[in-house]
Amino acid sequence: MGTVVHPRSAPDAGCPVSGGHPAPPPTRPQPVDPDEARTFLEQFYAETRPLIPLDRRLRQVFRDIATTGTYRHTPEELTFGARVAWRNSARCIGRLYWNGLRVRDRRHVTAPADVAAECVEHLREATRDGRIRSTITVFAPDGPEGPGPRIVNEQLIRYAGHRLPDGGVRGDPRYADFTDQVVALGWSRPEPLGRFDVLPLMITGTHGRPELFDLPRDAVHEVPLQHPEFAWFADLRLRWHAVPAISNMPLVVGGVHYGAAPFNGWYLNTEIGARNLADTDRYNLLPVIADRLGLDTSSVRTLWRDRALIELVRAVQYSFDEAGVTMADHHTESERFLTHVAKEESAGRSCPADWSWIVPPVSGALTAVYHRYYDEPDPDARPAFLPPSP
Ligand code: ARG
After folding, report:
1. Ranges for the Nitric oxide synthase (NOS) domain (predicted)?
2. What value does the mean pLDDT take over residues 32-36?
3. pLDDT of 159
4. 138 — phi, psi (to 5°)?
């Protein structure tokens, strides 16, 4: 997606993720294509059977497009559009609950400070002290007058990567460039520099000038990591945030582009344990854990990395469970995904999926999702969450 790396090494999550930090669109958005509006409304009517007849709604929408260049979704159309965009996300293993997505309609909000305040409210409502709810907040779309707001951060909650004089990074190296950008815009790094410093939101309004907003502490629920057997694990002072909320993928529904539409689900244990904390270009913690475990690290053939990895994923799962924060495990999620595929088939739909993102990054062949192939993803499927613009 956008700046994403090779798919076999990139899959991060199972859910749509991307690497880049988009600039605001430089040009005026095009008028909505009436054919895209029609295709969407036909789908909406076929799946939900609303009360107003389709041809009346179509006439109204075509008239609005002809006179204003765009049209306004009803709240029901918006909710359906956001849910189907999730259903169409070929990289997401968690799609069984697509129809339960909570949609916060904030289409009247455009000013960066108001967008930031609504992102904070989104986090509070989605977190609920750990009983996480899948939620999306939809801000003003792009329109003929100009672009709507954009959230530049890849996710609402991410940790800074502070470049050090020795060439290393303290914190999350994935966000070292983004951290440099916010510092250039006036963000002051915490002192002393931490490994888990929450980054500010960087938001552009309709004028395209970025502004920064700190997240209040109480909107960022975090889980300190501990291990069910090894007391030393807590001494590593690791933590992770409870809510993954992708914020830089535009939602496109019926030809309308919602450039700021942050959405969250809940974490899968392996996203944190087997990727964020383990990847050599992220927190790279396997050598530290192997050392504490007293493993023989003299050769990869001792499988020290594999053994350390399992203990790390175990610690993540155990800590979230103990803290009462919703987290999926890869075994259960794999079963749920196949239930979803079967349900889609019985509804007469195919369920395109990207095998390399669906199969978990540990114990692949222990999960049923590994042992089959899926319908090819269609990049033109709509509604959709699009890759962020470069
Ligand atoms: N892999 C990303 C991360 O570690 C999160 C992607 C979305 N994941 C999800 N479970 N909804 O932060």
Report:
1. 91-98
2. 98
3. 99
4. -105, 120
Q: Tens digit of pLDDT for each residue in 294-350?
A: 999 999 999 999 999 999 999 999 999 999 999 999 999 999 999 999 999 999 999
Domain limits, the chain: 7-32+69-374
Angle at 134 between CA 384 and CA 219, to 5 degrees: 120
Contact between 212 and 117 under an 8 Å Cβ cutoff? The reply is: no
pTM for this predicted structure: 0.93
Structure confidence at residue 221 (pLDDT): 98
Residue 92 known to bind ligand: yes
Task: Pick the closest to residue 161 from 202, 212, 195, 201 (CA basis).
Answer: 195
The pLDDT tens digits of the residues spanning 94-104 come to 999 999 999 99
Kindly state the helix (H) or strand (E) to which residue 203 belongs, with its residue range: strand 201-204
- Convert the pLDDT of each residue in 169-194 to its tens digit: 999 999 999 999 999 999 999 999 99
Which structure tokens are listed for 298? Answer: 């003299």
pLDDT value at residue 4: 29
Residue 27 CA, ligand 1 centroid: distance in Å: 31
The encoded tokens of residue 101 equal 């997505």
pLDDT of 9 reads 36
Residues 6+ apart with CB under 8 A from 258: 107, 138, 139, 140, 141, 142, 148, 250, 251, 252
Scored b (16 or more CB within 10 A) or e, 298-310 reads eeeeeebbeebbe
Give pLDDT, residue 27.
59
Q: Which atom from ligand 1 is nearest to the alpha carbon of 275? A: 4
Q: Provide CB contacts within 8 A for 255, sequence distance 6+.
A: 32, 33, 34, 35, 36, 37, 40
The answer to whether 266 and 327 are in contact (CB under 8 A) is: yes
CA 52 to ligand 1 center in whole angstroms: 38
Residue 334, judged by CB atoms within 10 A of its CB (0-12, 13-18, 19+), counts as buried
Whose structure tokens read 């951290």? 179
Residue owning the nearest CA to atom 4 of ligand 1: 271
